[in-house]
What we know:
Radius of gyration: 23 Å
Helix content: 25-40%
Largest sheet: 7 strands, mixed
Distance between the termini: 24 Å
Number of helices: 14
Number of strands: 18
Amino acid sequence: MTDVAIIGGGFTGAAVAYHLARAGVAADIVVFEPRRQLGAGLAYGGRDPTHRINVPATRMSLLPDDETHFARWLETSGALATDPQALSGGAAFPRRQDFGRYVDEALRPFVAGHRVRHVADVVVFVTRAGSGWRLATGAGETRRADFVVIATTHPAPSIPRQLLGVAADPRLVANGLADDALDGVARDDRLLIVGTGLTAADIAASLDARGHEGPITMISRRGLRSRGHAPRPFPAEGDFSSSPAREATQLLARIRSAVRDAVAAGRTWHPVLDAVRVNGGEIWRALSPEARRRVVRHLRPYWDVHRFRAAPQIDAVLDRRLAAGSLEIRKARLGTVEADRQGFVVELEDVRRHTSTRQAFDRIIVATGPAHGDVLRTQPFLGELARQRYVALDSSGLGLRTSLEGRAMDALGVASPNLFIAGPLARGTFGELMGMPQVAEYARFIAEQVLGAVDDERRALPLALSAASG
Length: 470
């Protein structure tokens, strides 16, 4: 029997397993995921009820061809009835943990029927074993697989170099989204949040729900806050795929022109950015390698705050605290950071005025976003595969080199026939792979590629046996 090993059981890994099992693939499917629940991962596995999906439930689905699948589950499971704050403007923005539970429940019949096996452990080593692969887990279990799907997520935020000198200080919170990260924050603590995007917004909402009333300062080099949703829904507009831009400046000019037209017609920028999202794959593939690097270096922060919009409930918290003066968002960089008995004294460098000020804080919380370049260092099995020259970082710095068929590529561009890259680590090839529905569509695409590869192997085996006996 063919074995398919899926490393990572967050949404992407669970979705690949679901589609393979649903299609009846002639293989044993093994998902390596240390969490008890499949489908939750970092994004949907937290316990904080203030953390909500940041798009309407009707755009979140395990099934790309059935957009209301999750929305219907919310009704039938009773999850919506226990979350009265989920509704906003006629749309539902439920708790992130509910989406994780939805995916887990979809997989349970396949786990119970032994179509999918869940190994609650991490993979620490992967190496070639004949024509397949050998995997080792943290607990020392080894297993051979004919096909491997890498479905691990992007790396956690890294601590800015200016904070390395105080990294061991318990008053520095390296991951503000961890379940117990904010337990030590006092009601009137003066807080510095390093980052101003969606992660920082979620942290601020969690603090507010816990009764925190002290001053919060958020900083980032550009001072960009995650944007909210449109006051009413608009259909996506703008043609970015029929004659896609080759250069970053050309793409930016087209987006700005489309936004001006939309605003002049009484709409907002939202439908234009929605069109960019929908056509993200075509737009990305048309860009030259240098243009891709320029987009990542200069435009990605602006894309992120428009693409990953805060749920209305989260946006309302930021608006209220900004109006009350208990929240400040600054365009600033970290300078020197000193720890004393009272907390930290931080030098904040004003990006616009080229001046600096020193400010005292009780705690510092890191919310800088994924450290994409650290993927080989933070996930040892990937580092080992890179040393064996089966995987390599992509040129845009977003993840791993991936072929158009979803296969891992080495530094020379040679693809492995039975090693697949799923989820955000394939962004360098496919572009928009961080939000729904693109993540769900790509997970199904990878399942289809694996299914085809398994079928090809089954057809080739009798021929190989026949040739060997002859």
